[in-house]
Amino acid sequence: MSKRMMAIILSAVMLSVLTAGCSGKGGKQEGANGGGTDSQKPISFSWLVYDRPEGKVKNDWEIFKEIEAKTGVKVDWQVVSQEGLTEKRQIMIATNTVTDFSQPTNQEARENGPENVFLNLNDYLDIAPNLKKFYETYPEAKAVATGADGGIYDVPVLEGDPAGKGFNYIWMARKDLMDKYNLKAPTNINEFYQFLKDLKAKEPDSYPLSFNTPVTADTGMYTVFGKIFTGITGFFNQSPTEDKYEFAPYNSGYKDALVFMNKLYTEQLLDPEFYLLTPDQWEERFLKGKSSVTYYWKAEVNPTIDKAKQAGTPDYDLDALPEFAADGVKTYQFSRPVVGSVGRAISAKVKDKERAVKYLDYLVSEEGTNYLSLGIEGKSYTLEDGKPVYMKEFGASPYVPLRRDFGVWYDNISLNNALARQTWERGLDDKSKAINSSYEKFIIPAPKALVKTTEELDLEKSKLTPLTKFLEQKITEFVTGKTPITDANYQQFLDQLKKLGSDELLEMYNTAYQRTYGSK
């Protein structure tokens, strides 16, 4: 048992008997002796899932009836609440009572697989051609699923297309106000500043720019402007132009980012409560015209327009502004990562190991993938020019009926979210397609996931949270003027970051990256 699980074990001892009663007992079949059996003989496997808000897990989803007819496998869903899923999974891992199928993080799989919690899929690739092809096609997936002993312990979920073009975020602004005041979309940082000033002049009671919180999230202000002035997304990340990780505050442009954000704050072009707003408060102000420019999920454009119109602003409209960056900085946005942070794993205690592997192999096959990500042709999707599109009657949010009525694109079940997203975007309206097209030139492939050692994980755990808290606090002081942005103050800022471990973390990320993937 790994040291990382010891704390969970101590809290799980009193619960282990209960969890054992509902997990690790799959593989129930007539005449099962373990090992190879008739692939059509009835068998059931337990599978840990949770009820999503769009709809609860159902035993009569049609896709699983069809899959059962083809494989002989019936799924015994072990359903928990969304809030309790992580704790339940961790307790099961700590007590080695995981269900036959489950969705651990890739890290959990590769750390606990060698301790006989999860099945080593590498031992069965000779009977699993689809799994073998999957790992050959996605070497990153193989890397993050491989334990220290060389075993492969899960099938990572696919999140982005291999070409690295799927993306999530855009600059968006009130198109109705732009049309009303004859304002053009900015294309660089100076034009963006003037754009905000012009909006403020026309709408003096507003603060044109606002961001959802937290400020360090993917759409948070510190992340967005840090990238604009340094080219680094977040605090630690891979450089978009070099084969290495960088720490944004070490870049000379980071001080410029602070100066720019302070200028926006001082001139009331930025919501003065930007670091305090709850998501609901931020949305209310954006809907009611207290702000008119933000950086957010592209999928929220049409829903936001609809909400604003329902709230009493019939002319409300939004459109995308292009990505931009400071002079000398690459203008880009990372795509969605191809390989996600979680994957499908099989319990090492499953009674019929070969049958379980063959079932997982089927789910990874083209037919199995289509069931889990698309559903049933003619009922949940159709083909247009040979490519799948979700049923038009499902509307702008097809994932609601897909998950509720079909079990399609359902978390902890689907293995290819990239296919689901591509199918969704293929059926978008003209405005959304135009936004995608306008951003295509800015999107570059996301960094590959790092495989960290236990020591590296411990370092990250001990250093990253205190460092991030200090960054949030000090950057807010700079932006709001509480701490003047002088050379001396900025140097003290950098010195404190080093004391908190920024150098150690940066070295660790580069070491982990080079060890996992080597140089390009």
UniProtKB/TrEMBL annotation:
Instruction: List, alphabetically, the PANTHER family matched.
Output: ARABINOSE-BINDING PROTEIN-RELATED (PTHR43649), POLYGALACTURONAN_RHAMNOGALACTURONAN-BINDING PROTEIN YTCQ (PTHR43649:SF33)
Provide the alphabetized UniProt keywords: Cell membrane, Lipoprotein, Membrane, Palmitate, Signal
Instruction: Look up keyword Cell membrane and say if it applies.
Output: yes
Which Gene3D superfamilies does the UniProt entry name for this protein? Periplasmic binding protein-like II
Does the keyword Cell membrane feature in the UniProt annotation? Answer: yes
User: Secretion signal: which residues?
Assistant: 1-22
SUPFAM superfamilies, per the entry: Periplasmic binding protein-like II (SSF53850)
What this protein is called in its record is ABC transporter substrate-binding protein
- What InterPro entries has UniProt attached to this entry? Bact_solute-bd_prot1 (IPR050490), SBP (IPR006059)
